[in-house]
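Entry details:
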Amino acid sequence: MSSTLGFTTLDGDLMPVPAQAERWTADEAVTRLFASHYRQLVRLAALLLADRDLAEEVVQDAYVRLHQRWRTLREPDRALGYLRISVVNGARSALRRRAVARRYAAILVAFPDVPSAETSTLDAYEQTVVIAALRRLPARQREALVLRYYADLSEADIAEAMGISRGAVKSHAARGLAALRQMLESRS
C-alpha cells in the first residue's frame, strides 16, 4: 500500500488522491483518513503494544496531531505515511513508559493476589504462540515484521515509518524472522 492520502473503497481498492486534497480543510482530510484507515492503524499499534485500549489511544493521538498540523504539512498527499510514523513513534513511547512503570512498580504498594488490568490484558494477548514469540523479539525487529507482514508495507514505507534505511529494514526483518522461527521451533 502506498503512503498517500488514498482512501479505501468498499471493495478494498485504494482510490487515488483527488487533485483538491491540498485544499481540503483539516476536518475533511482527517475525517476521510479516519474512515479509511483507523482500524488498520489500531491493529498495527495493537500488535506493537499488545494492548488494544492503549493502541486506540496512540492512534487517536496521531489523528489529533495530524489535524493540528494539517496546514503545515508540505505534502498533504503523504498524510497516511505521517500517521504510520506517528503511530509507530507513539507505540515506542508507550512501551518506554510501560518499562519505566515496571521498573518502579516495586516501590509502590502491590497486591500480589490481584492482577492489574494491564496484566489481564497482556495475558489475553499472550494466548497465541506467535504473538507471544513476536513480543520477545527486540523492538526494531518486531516493528519491521509487523509493518511488513501485518501492515503489508513495502520496504520503502517501512523505512520511512521506522526512520531507518531500507537496508536496515531488510536486516531487522531477516534477524527477526530467524529469531521467531527458532522460538517457534523450540516450542514444538
Summary: Strands lie at 7-8, 14-15.
